[in-house]
Amino acid sequence: MVWPAGVGHMIEFLGDTVVWFTEHWDGQDGYLVRTWNTILLSGLAILTAALIAVPLGALLGHYRRFGVAAVAVVNIGRALPSFGIIALSLPIIIRIASHIPNGVPIFGSGLGFFPAFIALFALALPPIFTNTYTGIREVDPGTVEAARGMGLSEGEILRTVEGPLASPVIIAGLRISAVQVVATSPLAALVAYRGLGRFIVDGFAVRDNVQIFAGALLVAVLAILTEAFFGLLEKRIVPEPLQASGAALGEETVVRPAA
Amino acid sequence: MIAQTNDSFVRWDWIWSHLDLVWEKVVEHLILTGIALGVGLAISLVLSAVILRWRPAYTPITWVTGIAYSIPSLALFAFLVPITGFTILTAEIGLVSYTLLILIRNVVAGIDGVDPAVKEAALGMGYTRRRLFFQIELPLALPVIIAGLRIAGVTTIGLVTVTALIGQGGVGFFILRGLNRFFSTEIVLGTMLSVILAVALDLALLGVERVLTPWSGRRGSAT
Amino acid sequence: MSEPMIRLSHVTKTFPGQSTPAVDDLSFDIAEGEIVVLVGPSGCGKTTTLKMINRLVEATGGTIEVAGTEITSVEAPILRQGIGYVIQRIGLFPHRTIGENIATVPGLLGWDKGRIKDRVTELIELVGLEQEMKDRYPSELSGGQQQRVGVARALAADPPVLLMDEPFGAVDPIVRSRLQDELLDLQQRVRKTIVFVTHDIDEAIKLGDRVAILNVGGVLEQYASPAETLSDPANSFVEEFLGEDRSLKRLSLTPIGSVELAPGPVVGPDATRSEVDAAMAQHGVDWVGVRTGPQLDGWVWGKDVTDTAGGATPKRFSVWLTPEQSLKEALDSVVSSHTGVAVIFDDESYLGMLSIEQISRHLLE
């Protein structure tokens, strides 16, 4: 049997990759630890963003304020290059650290967790905020009025009526945000964070194709798993009749021209 | 921004003295973006035509492009490097893949969104399928398609900065260099340029839409 | 009879996945220059039949000929360029001006610019719109105006045949009535062969030279003029479809002018009490009309007359009708008046009266 040369190289390459996976799983620089670091970083960024953006978006959406701002937020968020944001966070953190007494011990030399965290947090905010705002605001005003008429307080309306009804859109926002954060997290390696991105960046530096490929594989799988995870979350949290009204795989729903 | 210490956060004089480098990188950035959008749109139109002819193709195509979209940009470039090296081709393959999902979505939705009564009237008057597509459906789908182009465009401009890591980069060059040299001016410069270009592209495409759709500008008594 | 403009022979349409045909073995002819209305309940296949004529729906059996040519022998787009098509939702191209919309088919046919321009001007006037609308976009027009543009657009290349699918269904009744009148008026001038689909029997009666009543499955129950259909329904389905006020519908078809009017119990202002009594007795009523000049002054109760008819103040007749109006309107006037008659006049003089007996007698002839 004659294989073309390319296929032979490919098989060899894949073999090397498999070997790599068996050799690099343990230790501080192994992929298990780094995967955990990535999950930690991303998770905290998303969580913090959600804790701020969901209540804020819900409140503003309920009272129907600042609609223009909500749209602007997403557009600005999209225009900011994630690479730039992460890179910027470095000098910013350094500045802040040098102004606060004992700043340096707390924030470190500016490398590592904090810059990446700040950047990813900033990245996570827009989709969560805008989707929550829009979701709550777009709940049928007739339903809300009926609830008010029945004697529910504003807070109760938000929690028991608008929240559940807006849940598909809100969770879609969380999903989009999460995937975006996980997708950008490899760049944290550039500010010396010890996440999965390290494999890729280091691999680029030494031109180690196997390391690059393996790192990419790990990151890609993590991203897809994140997507799947939120899909499952949606199935759990969103009330039955409203399922599948959020966006499909990977994306915001079809974008209409801005009014 | 942040208060100045011994070193300015942004050294405008440095920027001023390197304007030709800035210009060079901006042009590079726009070229990379332009190629990505052009190729992306072309591929999307072809795939959309396939979907419009044969609906069942929609799910597999969106599934594949969706996965491409979910893969982190750095990882995607990383996958390609062993195959195509640190070249423009690698960058473009990655950039184009990111545009596909949203462009296909919007082209299909735009064409689907054309009023069925308009299509029926056109066919009833004797339009062939081909003329119908090019003279009626496509022009009427333009607003939605351009909306997709705007999103794809803005996203692409951001992603081009990442290609600095594989030797391309456009204005990402400044961000990377600034990071490596601990020179905040360059980081700020690169980031700001990226934002400016993104906003400029967005507005330019919006302008194109206004020019190409004179009928939607007027608000009439009906509707 | 000369060659029919449209001939359907044993036309059948079965949609894929359906076991019963939507239209089964339908045959009928449409003569040149007549308006034929296809009417029937939902599912009777009237729209499907219409669409088979211009091949928007392809028949699964039978043949259709237009102007002597079998429609399957021509390419569908070419066929359609020779047939006007108007639908309920109109489908004006939002991205083209009114003028450009109307110019569509002439453009497809390759007419030269000057000819197209003149034709557009001509048509805009024909459908009763302002010339300046030519450069507006459809979104700027009202529903009624848009529908007129739709008709103009269909007539642009001067096709011999016009297909209309419930074109007036989406506008309010006042506009609809006006559009119907305008269509009839238009037809006087252009004399097209029109196939018109509607579910509204009143519209069918008003517009059709002949009415084809279809039952579910494209079964042709009756195909005749409105008057004939109303006076002689073919079977119980048709009877039921025509509605319980069949006779009233017939009345709406007949103008007052075609019926003989009675002079009525009319006297001059110096008529004596006995002359008044005589007139009342002759007509079996308890009032008289008083007339000085060409018009009637009014009417008075017989018992109010003392010496002369002119002595009592005459009451005005509340409704006056012209010969062009229908017997149905006359009947409406009759049942709502004290006098029990409808008074007919033309421009300046009194012509006569109609009583309910006279109206019924007309129905029974």
CATH class of the largest domain in chain C: Alpha Beta
CATH fold-level topology of the largest domain in chain C: Rossmann fold
How are helices and strands ordered from N to C of chain C?
A: EEEHEEHEHHHHEHEHEEHHHEHEEEHEEH
Main sheet characteristics of chain C: 6 strands, mixed
Q: What is the CATH architecture term of chain A?
A: Orthogonal Bundle
Rg of Cα set of chain C: 26 Å
Largest interchain contact? A-B, 54 and 59 residues
Low-confidence stretches of chain A: 245-259
> By CATH's scheme, which homologous superfamily of the largest domain in chain C applies?
P-loop containing nucleotide triphosphate hydrolases
Outline type of chain A = globular
What general form of chain C does the structure show? elongated
What structural keywords apply?
heterotrimer; A: 259 residues; mainly alpha; MetI-like fold; B: 223 residues; disordered N terminus
Structure description:
The complex is a heterotrimer of chains A (259), B (223) and C (365). By secondary structure, chain A is an all-alpha fold. Chain A is 74% helix and 0% strand. Chain A contains ten helices and no strands. Chain A has helices at 5-23, 31-62, 67-79, 82-99, 103-107, 113-137, 141-149, 154-184, 197-206, 209-237. Chain A is globular. Chain C is α/β, with parallel strands linked by helices and 365 residues long. Chain C is built from 14 helices and 16 strands. Chain C has helices spanning 46-53, 76-81, 98-102, 104-109, 113-126, 143-155, 173-190, 201-207, 226-231, 236-242, 246-253, 273-283, 327-335, 356-364; strands at 6-13, 23-30, 35-39, 61-66, 69-70, 83-87, 161-165, 193-198, 210-215, 219-224, 266-267, 287-291, 296-301, 320-321, 341-346, 349-355. In chain C, the strands form four sheets. Chain C has a six-stranded mixed sheet with strand order 6-7-8-3-9-10, with helices on both faces. Chains in contact: A-B, B-C.
